[in-house]
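Ticket closed. Logging final result for LysR family transcriptional regulator.
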Amino acid sequence: MGELESLRTFLTVAETRSFTGAARLLGTTPASVTRTIAALEDRLGVQLLLRTTRQVSLTSAGAGYLERVAPLVRQIEVATEETRSQHGVTAGTLRIAAPMSLGQRVLPAVLSQFAARHGGTHVSVVLSDRFIDIVGEDFDLAIRISGPPADKSTVWRKLCDVPRLLVASPRYLAARGTPQEPEDLTEHDCLGYAEDAREPIWDLSSGARRRSHRAKGIFSANNGDLLADLALSGEGIALLPRFIVAQSLAEGRLRPVLPDWRPPPVWLTLYYPPYERLPVRVATFSDFFEVYVKETRPL
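Final structure:
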């Protein structure tokens, strides 16, 4: 391993206070990180890190070394990024977080087309429906479907609205009846999108009229595809993004419920760590993804 990569490994261990955490961020193994640090210490002739069963800490020599080399490594990384940017090169690794349903339905085509044009960029995608801390978990960007941003520690870029609607299967509606007003939902099983066991609130509007309904039912989940499958099985009424249920609606396997009543819009948004300037590979993918969404309208 080269000297610069050894220094990057040392900085990552010092920041995470963990060989395992550093290995995860660097895309390698804890054993490899351990060997790299040991080789660096051998070359310097001093111990940089103290290892215990619970954590890793800096020695006094390590703290002094970190203070000297950290700015140098950052300057080299900035110079490398600026040079790539000037020449339109997007080499490197791009780590992206995205929702499960969007990742499975939209990203395959995006990634294939992106790779055809920017083959030098390695794209690592993590699909999760939980709210990911992109700074703490070291992501370059996150794709989110959510309400307007409230996180002030990140930079964001809205791409478009994501339409949502209430749906149920014909079998369920035949057995339980079709709601005519939001108040009728109290007599139905509602399939709520929730991270925990709390019942979500469905805010609905029709013109100037506003109604709120607590979505009570046997099932709730934090994944739209699971809720759609439950709705298809006749388990209740679900409030979901249209792109998840579009095919089932077209095939008649799901039907809109209360079509004159709409939930507040949610956004398709790109979130970034607080960069002073987007790295070229991040900016390139962001622009590519935005053009794809606006041209193909997959949502």
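The chain has two domains: 3-86, 93-298. No further action required.
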